[in-house]
Amino acid sequence: MSCEFRAPGWLARHLLVGLLMIIIGGSVFGLLAVELKTNGPLISHDVPLASQLHGMATHAPASFIEIMTFGFFLGKEMIELTGFVLVVYFLYKHLWPELGMVLLGWSGGALLWIFVTRYFNRVRPEAQIGIVVHEPSFPSGHTMQAMLCFGMLAYFIIPRMPSLFWKWVIAVAAVAAMLFIGFSRLYEGGHYLTDVLAGYALGMAWAGLIYTAMDAFVIRRRV
Fold first, then answer.
1. Which of 29, 30, 67, 182 to pair with 37, CA 20 to 30 A apart?
2. 152-164, pLDDT tens digit by residue?
C-alpha cells in the first residue's frame, strides 16, 4: 500500500453508496426545509428544547462550558487548519483528485452554506452562551463542515488500518467528533435542533456528490 495519504477509490467502485448519500441527505434536508418554511410540527420542538438546554447550561460548571465551547473551535478553526494542511500536502504531492475533494467539498460546501443560510435567513436562538454568532441559523455550518471533514478523513484512514478493531476505532472517533460538535452548538444555544440535523443532512448529500464524483471520474483512471 502506498504511504501517500490519498483517497482509496472505494466510492468509485460502489457508486450506489454515493447515490444513497445524496438521496438520503437531500431528502432529510428537504423535509427539514419544508418544515421550516411551513412552521411544521418538527419546528415546534426547537424552542422548548433550546430553552431546556439553556436552563441546564446556566447551571453547568464553567469547566463544562469550556468543553462545549471547544466544540465551536473544533467545528470551525480546527477544520480550517486541517483543510489548509491537506491542501498544502496535496499540492506538494500532486494529488489533484484529493485536492479537489478539499477545495470542492469543503470550500464549495462553505459557499453552498452561505447561499442556503441567506435564503432561509432563520434567526438564531436568543439565549447564546459562550461565543455569540449572529449569522442566519439554518442549516448549521459547523455540523455540515464536520460531516465533510471528519467523513473524508475517516474515508481516507479506515482502509489503511491494519485490523478491523482499528477501523472501528477510527469510525467511532469520526462519528463522535461530528456528534460532539453538533451537541455543543445545541447546548450553548448557537443553533436549534433542526439546524443541526439539516447541517448533517446537507453535508452528507454534498459529500456523496463531490467525493463520489472525484473518485469515479478521476481516481478510477489511475487503475
1. 182
2. 999 999 999 989 9
* Residue 69 cell numbers, joined: 465551547
For the chain, give every domain's residue range: 10-222
The 8 Å CB, 24+ separation contacts for 107-110 are 107/83, 108/206, 108/210, 109/144, 109/145, 109/148, 109/203, 109/206, 109/210, 110/141, 110/145
Give the C-alpha separation, 82 to 198, whole Å. 23
Active-site annotation, residues: 142, 191
Q: Is the pLDDT of residue 215 over 90?
A: no
Tell me the percentage of the chain whose pLDDT exceeds 90.
61
